[in-house]
Amino acid sequence: MKNILFICFLFIISNSFLNAQELKSPDGNLTLTFKLNNDGTPVYSLNYKKREVIKESKLGFIIKSDIIMNRDFKITETKFQSENSTWKPVLGEQKEIQNQYNELKANLVQEKSKRKISIYFRLFNDGLGFRYEFPVQDNLRHFIIQEETTEFNLTGDHKLFWIPGDYDTNEYSYTTSKISEMQSLVYNATHVPLAAQATIKNLATQTPLMIKTNDGLYINIHEAALKNYPAMCLNVDDKTYSLSSHLVPDAVGNKGYIQTGSFTPWRTIVVSDDAKNILASKMILNLNEPCAFEDTSWIKPVKYIGVWWEYFTGGGSTWAYSDNQDVVIGKTDFAKLKPNNTHGANTKHVKEYIDFASKNGFDAVLVEGWNEGWEDNTAFKKERIYSFTKAYPDFDVKDLSDYASKKNVKIIMHHETTSSTAEYERQLNDALNFMTDNNYNAVKTGYVGPIIPRGEHHDGQQMVNHYTYVAQQAAKHKIMVDSHEAVRPTGLHRTYPNWFAQESARGTEFESMEGIHPDHTTILPFTRLMGGPMDYTPGIFQGDLSFYGDKKNKLSTTLVKQLALYVTMYSPLQMAADLPENYIRFNDAFQFIKDVALDWDETYILEAEPGDYITIARKTKGKQEWFVGGITDENARTAIIDFSFLPAGKSFTAIIYEDGKTADYKTNPQSYNIRKMTVNSKTKLKQKLAASGGVAISIK
């Protein structure tokens, strides 16, 4: 009997061993192990340079109602393949991207139900991407996901840079803590005033999630190619240090409506022992599909100003044309309403912005509050809030379009939906035709407040499909899209390069409200920007809002740090967000904003530590010029800027915009100095940065 048991035990071990598959990254530093455990559950683990990154973690799904698809599998086939190619993004941080990986595909079937699933693992030098495929099969066609049971089991009580798990917003401040400290901090993290909130009841966090281990590994968990699927948050077990997928539900609690013959998004784990490599990673882009358009000549970077910040300063400018609170779109004759005389989007004022843009070399002017409906922009309680084709009486669309054209400036359309997306889709075709007819080629969309259809969430499957639909429809009209309050990006700007920027995080506008912490912009590139460019709207020179009236808010940065953000916060859409008169007051510092490029041949991450500091250099696309940006948190520091990225044997003139000797974000934020120096590839500059300060360098 003992011999029989021993033979059975050997068979189990042997069978498990035969199931185990190992995959290495092209450089050999990362190792993925995949197998089925004794329950027939697919599991994976990940090592980096022989150090454990992800412990054995389970994979699979539960399908409604309680159909288990995370156990009782057997492996029917495994396939290995490799790729090493390059591709060129339409707009980007570098002109060419290498796509090199080794792939394992495992086909699985449940022995009793005969249901099938396939799992793809792609191992790059910078991390792991994996996704599920639901193959076409006889006994599974349409189904509803009850939950995805993907795990990311961490190896210890790591440091996290996190925002609370939420179905409707990414606009929280970041908290830095150990996993074990999250529960004591989550109440204060979530109890903040935001336009729409649906916090997850259990302990959870959003992605991209940045992690630093106790032994110095940097790990970033996110997703790539989010299409026709809900966004993924992460449940947190603060006792076992385990993370697991938490999909955003719809109005009736379902997680996703799936048809076989489809894929999930990729789950991504970027890992390195050097924080600079996290920022340099292009894995999420590589996991997205190539560009969907043959002609991309109309997709251009845009540097803009706008009728925007004046609404936040407390100076009195308003989005609304009148003070009447009882307007009805399609019935109210706005020409008969009494103007409030504080409406910012009027023809005369917009022409002043166009003149300033033209004089200073800007591409475009954003105008918010141009269209009917701002008097009563009540979220959730009212469905038809705005017209997207009818302007207020004091905004002459044709005159302004002609005026801007003569000045070689574009006007950026603004479509705030106040999250009545059902109504926006009804008007979308007319709105895009209106834009085409009036020479608009870019639109800023907004989704403030709870979603209509009611009960849906900003990050659920329906809204994920909505954002993609808007980008696709806009492309048919050769229109670029900048979406605010949308689901966080997952690299889809590779597939739809006209969707060239998003907000989807806490941006500059919060400096005028609840505020932004000094370390915020040293965390965002490691979190939100991992998925794609952010329209952060930097460039505020007059940071003390008491300058305008009764507001007591103060910016959390020095003036020079505002300049540096144009380099450290990548986006092909960049706003000079302050009022024109403040740029006239600080015209010498304004020169950097006018000069800085938006599209790049190369990017060099010179220094980086999440939550502390970032220094980045970039080479302008097609030109022999470079720009450097360095920022720090609330602690002053000395940045070490190594100019070895410059061509050897040549000297260049660097214009350095630096914090003044007495600069401090609290007491003296507008203190700065501008100097020139000659640099070459052997130059190493020790540059002092003030508390929440920065440095910006232009090299030609």
TrEMBL record:
InterPro entries named in the record: Aldolase_TIM, GH, GH-type_carb-bd, GH97_C, GH97_catalytic, GH97_N, Glycosyl_hydrolase_97
Record Pfam families: GH97_C, GH97_N, Glyco_hydro_97
Domain Glycosyl-hydrolase 97 N-terminal: from-to ranges: 23-290
Cofactor(s) recorded in Swiss-Prot or TrEMBL: Ca(2+)
Keyword Cell inner membrane: no
An MF annotation (GO) of this entry: hydrolase activity
Domain named Glycosyl-hydrolase 97 C-terminal oligomerisation: residues: 599-700
UniProt keywords, alphabetically: Calcium, Hydrolase, Signal
Span of the signal peptide: 1-20
Residue ranges constituting the Glycosyl-hydrolase 97 catalytic domain according to the UniProt record: 316-505
Subunit structure, as described in the record: Monomer.
UniProt name for this protein: Glycoside hydrolase family 97 protein
Organism this protein belongs to: Flavobacterium psychroterrae
